[in-house]
Specification:
By secondary structure, this protein is mainly α. It has one domain. The chain is built from 2 helices and no strands. The chain is elongated. This is Integrase core domain-containing protein.
Length: 55
């Protein structure tokens, strides 16, 4: 990325998609997930299942 913008539209598009995806996965809580982010919900699910496997 240049200081003044992007060299190509594909580069800008990729940056926008990555920002939105990151925001919705890591920052924005979802009511469906008991107000947790999708990443936090997945982390808790994996930790819980790991404990079941280890016991």
């Amino acid at each position: 990325m240049l200081k003044g913008g992007y060299e190509e539209i594909a580069e800008a598009s990729s940056a926008i998609i990555n920002y939105i995806w990151g925001y919705y996965q890591a920052v924005r809580p979802h009511s469906f997930n008991n107000s947790l982010t999708p990443l936090e919900t997945e982390r808790r699910y994996l930790n819980q299942n790991l404990l079941l496997v280890l016991n």
